[in-house]
Amino acid sequence: MNRVDRLTAILLLLQGGKRSAGDLARHFEVSRRTIQRDIDALCEMGIPVAADLGVAGGYSLPPDYSLPPLALTLHEALLLRMALSSISQLGEMPFKRERETLLAKVQTLLPRRERTHLDQVAQTLSLDVPSRPYQTPFLEHLLECATRERWVMAEYRSEKGTSWQTLLPLRLRTSAGLWYCEAYSFERGETRVYRVDRFLSVRATAPPQMEQPPEPIRHTDPSFPEVRIHLTARGVMKLERVEHLASRLQMQENGEGLLCMHLRPADYDWLVGVLLGMGTDAQVLEPAELRLQLQQAARALVDHCAQ
After folding, report:
1. What's the whole-model pTM score?
2. Fewer CB near the terminus (10 Å): N or C of the chain?
3. Residue 279: φ, ψ to 5°
4. pLDDT value of residue 109
5. What pLDDT, on a 0 to 100 scale, did the predictor assign at position 162?
């Protein structure tokens, strides 16, 4: 990092609060003396950096001080543009209007001579987000409720039918182009994950009476049964494309692998669906319950295909 970039980075850090010379030196991997010279240079530029002495001392900026708009580097602008482009590929997204204004601001923060170069580089990179035709009219409402910790009464459509549930939205995320809402269900007494496009209606409701606050969802935990699945070399390549599982794969010298994790039994149905798609390239070693569920699902599939 050159000195100009380091001076800018120091200012950004000081905007977040007081930092000691030692903290800054470790952050930038330079000497305390270098940091002191950088602070002197900032002061010479007219920036009001205050230095407090003592054990709890450090450098800080006045509470009302704000930096003027900073020009982006080419790579910084490219990262922002790629992020905005990937978000726009989602079928639905919150703050659509703000995306357009942010994209325009990114252009203004880039030096004029770099804008053409940015267009050229952006054409050689892309982030592929699957396009889904589903509508999510309650996306922003759920996001606001999750942020403000507000309960909702929701009508939800699942493979088992339609149900009304009193939910406390906790967080929203995307996966494979779909939006998901992690929420605590008062009726189910646990935290579950809901597909946002399957909500039929969502309206505010009063918080229900609860003895204990809802706990976050746990898919894996040492208290859950251990799952061990042997994979052929081809099975390893298939599993590497499965989100949440690839990082738990233990490779063997012959190219085969072993999937080991402590999985919540309620998630066995999801894992069975993954294993059915892998055919004979995956073999469940334990637990017996998962192996039995896989056998039953395979027989049901054979019977269905025989009809």
Report:
1. 0.62
2. C
3. 60, -135
4. 67
5. 95
